[in-house]
Amino acid sequence: MPLLQTPARKLLLIALLGLLFSLLALLWVMQNPWLGVELTGDETPGLRIEQVDPDGPARALSEARRLLALSVPGRGAPVELQAQDRVADPDELHGYSEFNAFMERQQRLNALLSAPAVELHWLDAHGALQRTLVTPTHRPLTALPFLFWYELLCALGGLMIAAWVFVLRPADRAVHFLAITGICMFVTILVNSLYVNRELAMQGIQWMALINRVAIVLFGCALIDLFLSYPAPLVRARHLLWPWLIYPLWLLLDITQVLPEPTLGMQTALLSQMLLVSLLAMLHWRRSRHQPVQRAALLWFVLSFVLAYWLFMFATLVPIALELPMLMPMGYAAGFIFLSYIGLALGISRYRLFELDTWAYRILLTVIGAVVVAGLDVLLIWGLHMNPLLSLGWALFLAGWIYFPLRQWLWKRLIGRTEARLEDLLPDLIALAFTAGAEPREQGWRQLLERLFKPLDQQPLERSPAHTALVDEGLSLRLPACGGLGARELRYANEGKRLFTPSDAEFAQGLCNLMAHAASSREAYERGAAEERGRVYRDLHDDIGAKLLSLVIGAETPARADLARSALDDLRDVVSHSACGSMPLSDLIADWRAEIDNRLRSAGIELHWFPSAGLPDIQVAPEAAMHLGRILREGVSNVLRHARASVLNVDIRHEGGELCVEMSDNGLGLPAISLRPGKGLINMRKRVELLGGHIDWLPAQPQGCRIRIGLELKRLEEGRAERADDHSEGKAWRGK
Fold first, then answer.
1. What is the rounded CA–CA span in Å between residue 475 and residue 103?
2. What is the pTM assigned to this prediction?
């Protein structure tokens, strides 16, 4: 496999190059002469001594208050120190004359400090002039200030993030400009860290200042072209060359000191670049006013870059242009630039900036892990003087116990969700597929999707898509109907913290496929069970049914004939309703009327059946039909056995979403029935309660008994019932 074939290897190579240049910068700063004193400038002649390193060459100055001058014995007069010598960044100076004088003094001071011995002229606590001869040494690693390491980390971090996006999207023009900003940012912060953290003087500072100026201006050019190209192209490709023609020429005028003053040079150029970038961001914002997803991504992108660089400008360059002190040291202000790349990395997770997704983090974190192990190994060999094998062991130990747990924590924080596997969800899908009732299955499916994707909103779809699909660039995810479950649309993944991704769509499609297979298994099971029930019912009908029919024909009394006929009707009811599916309500009413009329005619009782007009055309579930038929049959049996009536009135109608059934007779009335509350009345009430309805026994006018039953039509369609002692909804029942 070629060395640079995979993005991870490309990113690792860039990381190693960044580490190499950082190591060279570290060696450079350590090679400069070092006295071991911390100096600051003020309006008093010389420099104030803030701190003296007890192990440094100038440790004899522990009682000193001010360092006045440097000299080399036998090389002329001492060079007096000025507050200007401790200016951290040459760009803080006002006027080209001050800039040139600063560079000249830096060369003279560096030449003095490079001598074998340097004489320090200083004042003690009593104001007496003292002289001390010292030998400057190389700066040790432990003497480097925190600011140097901070800038080094910012430079490497920004370079890694820009390179990370580049190796994953090398064909994207906008990403090319992002990569240039990363390189320029790395160069300017790295070079700045060298002379900002110098002790007093540094060799080659004029070249470092020049490189810093060029890098920061080119950074602005790349940033302009980045906003001209992303999120959407604003100009043709040939117009992207204009910033690279105008601003380098502007910088050349500043470097050659043709301009009247430095504030009209690099500082004004950078300010104009940031104004132009801000205008481009506003133009993108206006163009995306009808695209909420793009606008949200643009807002994050703009906040990551434009806001960060304006903070950098206001903290450093704007005060310099106004001849005011900077709000913070230039080195610390570089952290604003690094934060812009951190924002870019977080935006990839939330908004898929540059069309990247969370998988990209795996590459970045893996490469960082390799760099951490290598960096720790080098540090342990160099700093602790360990042998290579022992240092590698310690590096792996520290990386394993510190970095890799931190890596996992970062992964969970960045991605914001736990990866689920389809094979782990198979038991849940099977249990869901075999749940009794369509509504409980829909509820379970909704809860499963809620647990997996955590959407802010979840709605059913009227039309099912052919397969899972991302909508509104990841704002929504649509799932097709599967396994008897309706199609759904999920919106705002992970509680609105991210967009849906292609991997989410692929995972959801696999979930739907498994659900369809589980539902097919349930249907096959139900078909097998139905076939077995059909065989049992046929045997019951052919055997017991024939015997009951013989009892009806050979009954000695009408009462026994009615009892046998009722048992035969019950048997036929069980067989017919259990062997078939739902039946239209109108067909059931016709069957009930024929059965009741036949029973009453045999007993000499007249049936008055009121027209059932206005009833909805619904399909009644088998269990509900069987229960309702037995309720009517028991009511007729009570009339035949106890009422001594000559007329029975039956009225079935639709009132307020309920199926209302009224049976009234002209017999003995309610007291006669209430004296004998047998199992028949108790069973009638229980069956009505199982269907979620209500039943009342009332006196009829002018005499007799009236039974009023109310049942919800929805419950008749669903066929669900509740046990009388268990009111938890959703429990399925089976008729006995």
1. 57
2. 0.56
Element (H, E) at 133: strand 129-134
Structure tokens at 660: 């209302």
Predicted confidence band of residue 574 (pLDDT cuts 50, 70, 90): low
- Look up residue 531 and give its amino acid: E
Nearest CA-CA partner of 26 in 132, 155, 130, 131: 155
User: CA dist 100 to 68, 79, 84, 330, 598, Å?
Assistant: 22, 17, 12, 20, 121
User: Which H or E element spans position 6?
Assistant: none
CA-based end-to-end distance of the chain: 71
How far apart CA 180 and CA 172 sit, in angstroms, is: 13
Query: Which tens digits make up the pLDDT trace of 61-120?
Result: 877 889 999 999 888 889 999 988 888 888 778 788 988 999 999 999 999 999 999 999
The two structure tokens encoding residue 43: 């309006």
What order of strands is seen across the sheet that includes strand 457-460? 457-460, 488-491, 476-479, 469-471
State the pLDDT at residue 326: 73
| Dihedral angle of Cα 552, 558, 563, 568, to the nearest 10 degrees | 30
In b/e form, how buried is each residue of 689-699, taking b as 16+ CB within 10 angstroms? Answer: bbbbbebebee
Euclidean distance between CA atoms 353 and 345, whole angstroms: 9
The amino acid that residue 197 corresponds to is: N
Q: At 297, which amino acid appears?
A: A
210-224, 358-372, 548-562, 668-682: least confidently modelled range: 358-372
Look up residue 149 and give its two tokens: 């390491």
Question: Before 702, cis peptide (omega within 30)?
Answer: yes
CB neighbour list of residue 279: distance below 8 Å, 6 or more residues apart: none
428-439 pLDDT, tens digit per residue, is 888 888 887 788
Query: How high is the mean pLDDT of the chain?
Result: 78
pLDDT in tens, 237-250: 899 999 999 999 99
How many Cα atoms sit within 13 Å of 283 on the Cβ side? 16
Q: How far apart are CA 332 and CA 410, in angstroms?
A: 25
**Which two tokens mark 644?**
């001594």
What's the token pair of residue 166?
Answer: 């580049």
CA atoms within 13 A on the CB side of 356: 27
Task: Provide the 8-state DSSP code for 482.
Answer: B
Alpha helices per DSSP H over 313-358: 318-321, 330-351
